[in-house]
Every structure is written in C-alpha cells, then in structure tokens.
Amino acid sequence: MKRIEIRVFGFVQGVGFRAYTRRRALELNLRGFARNERDGSVYIVAEGEEGNLIRLLEAVKKGPGRVESVEYKITEATGEFKEFDIL
After folding, report:
1. Of residues 18, 22, 24, 31, which has the active-site annotation?
2. What's the pLDDT at 37?
3. Which value, in Å, is the radius of gyration of the alpha carbons in the chain?
4. What is the pTM of this model?
5. Which of 61, 59, 27, 33 is nearest to 46 (CA)?
6. How far apart are CA 36 and CA 54, in angstroms?
7. Over its length of 87 residues, how does the chain's per-residue pLDDT go in tens digits?
8. Domains of the chain
9. Catalytic choice (23, 29, 31, 36)
C-alpha cells in the first residue's frame, strides 16, 4: 500500500473539485481526504494500491475547474484513514 500527497493549483475551489475527487477516490477504493487551502489550492492525501493512486492523480489533473499545476509525492501508506473525506 502506498500514499500520495497532491497539491492542485488553479481555479479549483468553489467548483466541486473536492466532491469530484472524493467520488473518484471511492471508485478507486482509496482512503484519505481532500481539503481547500488558504492559498486557493486543494490538498489531497490518499492511500491505496499504487496504480489506483496514479489513476486518481490523472483524474485530478483534468478538473473540474481550471487546473494550472499539480505537485505530488508518493510514500509508504500509514493506514490512518478509514474513509475518504472532504475537509
């Protein structure tokens, strides 16, 4: 099991981005969260199978809203999440 931390920059708040991310994460059997940051970005942490984490990464690059850039890192999972939440 792996963990991905993603920061999505652009016009991604107020457009359903976190709900979109949650739906996709649940389809991919991932656990974690998505939250808005004060700088206008969305921060996502997800854990699960590495292939599914990459699929989530590709999905968030596409929207909704206007994604300008994405930063991410993959590490070992901690197992701390039970669901995928919107914070």
Report:
1. 18
2. 98
3. 12
4. 0.96
5. 33
6. 21
7. 999 999 999 999 999 999 999 999 999 999 999 999 999 999 999 999 999 999 999 999 998 999 999 999 999 999 999 999 999
8. 2-78 (3.30.70.100)
9. 36
Q: Structure tokens of 39? A: 């700088």
Q: Residue 18 catalytic?
A: yes
Looking at residue 21, its pLDDT comes to: 98
What confidence score (pLDDT) does residue 63 get?
84
Of 33, 36, 24, nearest in space to 81 by CA: 33
Question: Distance between CA atoms of 18 and 14, rounded to whole angstroms?
Answer: 9
Token code pair at residue 40: 């206008």
55 tagged catalytic: no
What is the spatial distance between Cα 75 and Cα 65, in angstroms, rounded to a whole number? 27
Amino acid (1-letter code) at residue 29? N
Euclidean distance between CA atoms 75 and 78, whole angstroms: 9
Separation between Cα atoms, residue 79 and residue 3, nearest integer Å: 9
